[in-house]
Amino acid sequence: MEQRIAVLVSTVLGVLLLGVFAMVARSAGSSGTADEIAASATRWRRATLWGLVVLFIPTIAYSLTRMPYPSSSRQTAAVVVQAKGHQWAWEVAPDTVPAGQLVEIRVTGADVNHGFGVYDASDRLITQAQAMPGYTNVIRYTFPAPGTYRILCLEYCGLGHHTMFSQLVVTATR
Ligand code: CUA
Q1: Taking the model in full, what pTM does it have?
Q2: Is 172 left (phi over 0), alpha (psi -120 to 50) or beta?
Q3: CA-to-CA dists, residue 36 to 27, 31, 40, 132, angstroms
Q4: Residue 22 sits in the same domain as residue 54
Q5: Structural domain contains residue 73
Q6: Which of 31, 65, 99 finishes a domain?
Q7: I need a surface site. Which of 1, 18, 73, 111 has the fewest CB within 10 A?
Q8: Same domain for 91 and 35?
């Protein structure tokens, strides 16, 4: 849907731009003094600028309302999980969260940078954030289904990197 709108908008803008080029090309061939031609060019530039302003202000205003982020950032999370990466283990508390409710995971690192990656039962990466010492990255995610979700480290963090497994158990909500 969004892609079709993008194609449509690009086509319309492209045609408008071609129209402007055609008119400029035609007026370039017309006779007149240098001053008249310069004045006409200035008029064209001004008209094009204001045309674009009138076109883009509502477009940008509309597209800002369609951002994917605000709906979840205004909501209060049902559960807050603290996740910390250590060399070489994850500290995740609580490790049980409800399905179908917004979960906030605060991700940080104890020593070096780690990559906090959450995988579903079919080993698809569903959400991730960097676990950095001295900084907390926040993941806001609603687990769609109950199950055991694996947590792996996505960034090489030393010899034990590949041993950094943990899990989040997602339970059905009553
Ligand atoms: Cu922690 Cu790689």
Answers
A1: 0.61
A2: beta
A3: 11, 9, 6, 63
A4: yes
A5: no
A6: 65
A7: 1
A8: no
Read off the pLDDT band of 21 (50, 70, 90): confident
**pLDDT tens digits for 54-100?**
999 998 888 888 776 655 567 788 899 999 999 999 999 999 999 99
**Cβ of residue 131 lying under 6 Å from some atom of ligand 1:** no
Edge-to-edge strand order for the sheet containing 89-93?
Answer: 89-93, 79-86, 102-109, 137-142
Domains in the chain, number: 2
> Which domain, by its residues, includes 29?
2-65
Ligand 1 atom closest to Cα of 88? 1
* pLDDT score of 68: 66
Is there an atom of ligand 1 within 6 Å of 117 CB?
no
Measured in angstroms, how far is the CA atom of residue 10 from the centroid of ligand 1? Answer: 43
Q: Which is higher by pLDDT, 41 or 150?
A: 150
